[in-house]
Amino acid sequence: MPSAKNKEKGAFHKASGRHVLVIEADMSENNKRRIFNISNRLRLAGNELTALMRNNLIQLLRTKKYGKLRKLYGKAVENNNKDRKSKLSSQMKTMQEEYNVSWDFCRKAMIPIGKKYDLSSVFALTRAEDIWKGVEKVLYEDGKMIHFQKRGEFPILRAKQIEKSIIVKNIDDQLVLSCDGITFSPIIKDRFERDEVDAVLHYLENPSVVDEEAVQMFCDTGYVTDTYRPCYAALKCEEVRGKLRVFIHLTIEGKAKPKFNKDGSPRHKYGTGVVGCDIGTQTIAYTSDTECGLKNLAERGNAISKSERKERILLRKIDRSRREMNPQNFNEDGTIRKGFKKWTFSKNYITNRRLLSELQRKNSINRHLAIREDVNHIRSLGDIFITESKNAKKLMAKAKETTVNEKTGKINRKKRFGKSIKNRCPGYFQSYVENVFLLTGGKYFEVPYDYRASQYDHTNGEYVQKKLSDRMFSLSDGTIVQRDLYSSFLLYNATSDNNTGQLKIDGMRCINTFDEIIKLHDAEIERIRLSEKKVLNSGIRI
Residue 243 in 3-state DSSP? Predict the structure, then answer.
């Protein structure tokens, strides 16, 4: 049984938050190649375990009995029958163990595979955990099948125990890490990284004293102290502009240190008030007390449509080269032939593939930076964020039903918003804005599905069905509004229902705030027109 002190310490660690410091490792080219080699061996070992678990999973899912159990379990969930759910769950668990689809089998199967590839047991175990998470997604969520990692993809080397595999120490007031006999330090580039590393070094000087003081403070007052204890470290191998680079991912207990500008002022400001935000597939529209905004998602500086077009051009080049060099692998209609195939790639193909990989890396970083800049700006406008429920994954999926166009008689395409969501990342924006508001003392709310912000007209209190193509429309009093901005206005005027506790549109508040907000609305549309920068699917002509 754990002692009282250990229980208090465990409660403190559970209440403490965590963040990840990403910082580049300072090591020689030879040591980088060694780390890359370990990561590649981990990929091979993971693929071997994936093949084993994949075969077992396929055999389990093919059985009629397990298929019936899954259907019955789904009905029990719909009817909220707890006894039926527990019985079916135990039967499904028994079948999973019979077909060796269990965490215990996955963990034990990785032990000989890890020894075969001469891997640390900690790295092998964390890789087995990642594979098992994929299996669980197939068993219990909407996953289709677990997948292999391709050549050139390097899995992260994660050591979930700070004293094993990747060891973090304070040596002469320097943060030193060691992995597989390789000793290295982080490259500190700015003030934020220096503050974070100094906080970790301060903890490592007297870890027991810092922990004891923090636990005592938590037991006495309930206050959670940021100890900056290094929980565990990981190494990520990346090829950037043709050069090998290794990045340290250090998981630290506590909130991240604040960032400052060069003049010493805080980089991020936190506002107060309500912010209503309509998150689309390619744009965001927001309304606050002082500002209305409509802009393209994941866009900073110049339009990213140019870089997206470069990606498409390179993909077409690569596809043409692959087809010219391997005509035997394709059918007459252009589809790929089934069965074993041998591929031959030209030098031009290899060059273009590297260019594409580098371009995709840059675009990915730019998307993340743009989203974080937008979120930080929105946080400066208010501390209460109201938006619609997450639906990016549903919009990305193809339509299930086959429909026929009434005018042409042709079958309609089943594609929906997959490319838009891939290029603009609305799901990442929504999850990141939720994290930022909650971590900085703000509040985050999602309205129910029957809120219907895009259909309500506050001037007459009625819901009016609109087509998706109607971007600019007229209210019943003749006022012309932009659809996304007006939706954010209605989200801005949400209130809690006394009976259900859910958010609903406050019609009276809409009337009281509309005169001020419509001025901000018109000013934002005029700004977009003068900037001559197209906002996608906005209906605003430049």
Answer: strand
